[in-house]
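Reviewer 2 asked us to include a model.

Predict the structure of this chain.
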Amino acid sequence: MGDKDARFSESVGTLAAEVVDVLAPLGDVRWKKMFGGAGIFLEDHMFGLIDAHAQLHLKVGDDNRERFERAGSVKHARMPYYTVPDVVVQDDARLLEWARASAALAT
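Predicted model (structure tokens):
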């Protein structure tokens, strides 16, 4: 889980702003500070998080788990979120595709 004592860093805020910008086609995507990181929300439903180390994670369920596992993603503690590979984070179209499936799980 998140480190309650972690301090919010500029790199987390920068990544959160970039992710929200890329995911804008999904609708009302916002972020807010959480435990030194950031939660990524569609409307009021959290579907992503950025940890205190500026690593993006997306919500995973039965419909998209295999994609994350094939990519070598790592589960975030006991939460249903997995890391997003850098090659996906750096490709706006792929990130939007991966996030769309995660957002659908949260709503």
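The longest helix spans residues 92-106. Strands lie at 29-34, 37-42, 45-50, 56-59, 81-83. We have added this to the supplementary material.
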